[in-house]
Specification:
404 residues; six-stranded parallel beta sheet; 10 helices; 22 strands; globular
């Protein structure tokens, strides 16, 4: 058992965590087990160095300084002090961060209009714990690898509440794909899809970050899966993960193909494009069909953020088919999050779930490395070039002197 001793005599306070040789405190004569010292700066915030490695005094992070759906215009890289974790927090050295379509909704201030610049960007990261608060040490230790879904991920180091982190076996970027993209597909289809064996499921943007998971979960439910994509390479990938009918809309007419090959309609649509694609999806619904809206990326780069949608006859179309349109926003389903992540992690460990990662190797300037690459990565995703989840490798500078 580790023991904790706080010695206070008006002059100083030292925390001692057990696990080593026994010593006698000179001030109190109390025996304690000495192993590792935590410098107690404020009795509530504690900091530990990771195996003697150097934690710099400063770091880089992306800060939104202007509200705009143009990521390059909205965000800039700033050099700031490395933060110290509070009592229930972890300090994570980010190794990989995830790129999401909603990153530009966030920089445009669409999620919470009351939040004004400057504020930190980025939703998800994975890395090592290099510092932690005393309460957080009951669950984690320095050197643990964790992933998290929260704000401020586009940074070399991020302070994250311990309760909002997930322990992972390693810092593989594949685990990062599960936090938002995987969880969205898993929970949306489970809670809103009502999938039944033998049904037909259409996944739009199927070779993207979340589409790849929707294809696999629908297939695992025993459904016939159709996936839209923009290239033959992506169509090949979709076949490899179980998609029954990839449709490359750059060479095939999507509307005509669906009408011809699926005259009875589509039972479930997992839709993330919006605009004309959503209109088509509505028209293709079968009786009692369900259309799940998880996004509308085709409009995010516009001033309003909403693509044009001709929905004047929508009530009639839904009524005639006893169909429904359902919206999904991940933060509203946090109660499902733990189970979803646990299930997906097990599937991945057993080799039953493909977590395709796109690190930008085929992009014009090469792999996305360093925070500066986040700008390129966002552009790359919005150009529709990615196959799988776009991730950026974060490379904190090596510094000879510790923050302590």
């Amino acid at each position: 058992m580790s023991s904790l001793l706080l010695v206070r005599n008006g002059r100083r306070a030292v925390s001692v965590i057990g696990g080593g040789r026994r010593v006698t405190d000179a001030l109190s004569g109390v025996h304690a087990v000495a192993r590792r010292f935590i410098i107690d700066m404020s009795y509530s915030a504690h900091f530990m160095d990771f195996k003697g490695s150097s934690i710099p005094s400063t770091m880089k992070k992306l800060v939104v300084t202007k509200l705009s759906p143009n990521f390059r215009e909205a965000a800039s890289i700033q050099t700031v002090a490395v933060p110290t974790p509070g009592d229930k927090d972890l300090l994570v050295r980010n190794r990989f961060v995830g790129i999401n379509a909603s990153d530009i909704n966030y920089t445009a201030g669409r999620y919470d209009p009351s939040v004004k610049p400057p504020f930190d960007a980025g939703f998800e990261g994975i890395g090592e714990v290099v510092g932690l608060g005393l309460s957080a040490s009951s669950r984690y230790t320095v050197g643990d690898t964790v992933a998290y879904f929260g704000s401020g991920a586009f940074a070399e180091y991020t302070v994250v509440p311990a309760k909002e982190t997930v322990p992972v076996p390693s810092v593989k970027p594949e685990f990062l794909t599960l936090l938002v993209s995987g969880a969205t597909a898993y929970i949306a289809l489970k809670r809103l899809g009502d999938l039944a064996k033998g049904e037909t499921v259409l996944v739009t943007a199927a070779a993207g970050g979340t589409g790849q998971f929707a294809v696999q979960f629908a297939k695992q439910a025993g459904c016939h899966v159709i996936g839209t994509c923009s290239s033959n390479e992506k169509a090949g990938f979709l076949k490899s993960i179980g998609c029954d009918r990839p449709i490359n809309y750059s060479v095939e007419d999507l509307a005509k193909t669906l009408r011809k090959e699926y005259p009875k309609g589509i039972d479930v649509v997992y839709e993330s494009v919006g605009g004309s694609v959503m209109e088509l999806a509505v028209n293709c619904l079968a009786n009692k069909g369900r259309l799940i809206v998880i996004g509308f990326i085709s409009g995010y780069q516009t001033a309003s953020g909403i693509p044009e949608f001709r929905g004047g006859t929508l009530p009639v179309k839904l009524l005639q088919k006893s169909a429904s349109m359902r919206g999904f926003f991940l933060p509203h389903f946090i109660s499902d999050y733990k189970e979803a992540l646990g299930s997906m992690t097990q599937l991945f460990a057993k080799g039953k779930l493909v977590c395709e990662v796109d690190r930008g190797d085929l992009s014009q300037e090469g792999r996305f490395v360093g925070l500066e690459s986040v700008f390129r990565a966002v552009d790359y995703m919005y150009a529709g070039k990615n196959l799988g989840k776009v991730v950026v490798e974060v490379a904190p500078p090596s510094v000879s002197q510790s923050k302590l």
